[in-house]
Amino acid sequence: AAFAIGFSTAIKLLGMPLIALLILWPFGADDTTRVVAVLFAACPTATSAYILARQLGGDAPLAAAVITVSTFAALITMPLMLALVVP
Q1: What's the whole-number mean pLDDT along residues 57-82?
Q2: pLDDT digits (tens, 9 = 90+) for 2-25
Q3: What's the pLDDT at 31?
Q4: Which of 7, 46, 49, 87 is deepest in the core (most CB within 10 A)?
Q5: What distance in Å separates the CA atoms of residue 39 and residue 42, rounded to the nearest whole number?
Q6: CA 46 to chain centre
Q7: Contacts for 58 with CB less than 8 Å, ≥ 6 apart
Q8: Smallest Cα–Cα separation from 43: which of 86, 79, 3?
């Protein structure tokens, strides 16, 4: 379970903002658009994921762990991601 938590957190907090940048790059997006897109992509896992996992028969404890870890990790990764895109 620790690998799943770490992997999903890394993809969510590091991979998704970088993918957002790669998608915007060819379109020549302005600075504000890039910052907003990366900021939204760098947000931690939504707390509603726990509710959905619980109601739909998923692994609710794993969802809770991913939400908790990603929220705390976002304290470090969000400023780093913003530092990449803020001019």
Answers
A1: 97
A2: 999 999 999 999 999 999 999 999
A3: 93
A4: 49
A5: 5
A6: 9
A7: 52
A8: 79
Question: What tokens appear for 63 in the block?
Answer: 């969802």
pLDDT above 90 for 78: yes
DSSP string, the chain: -HHHHHHHHHIIIIIHHHHHHHHHGGGT--HHHHHHHHHHHTSPPPTHHHHHHHHTTS-HHHHHHHHHHHHHHHHHHHHHHHHHH--
pLDDT(54) > 90: yes
Tokens of 67: 């939400």
Q: One-letter amino acid identity for 65?
A: A
Task: Give Dmax over CA atoms of the chain in angstroms.
Answer: 44
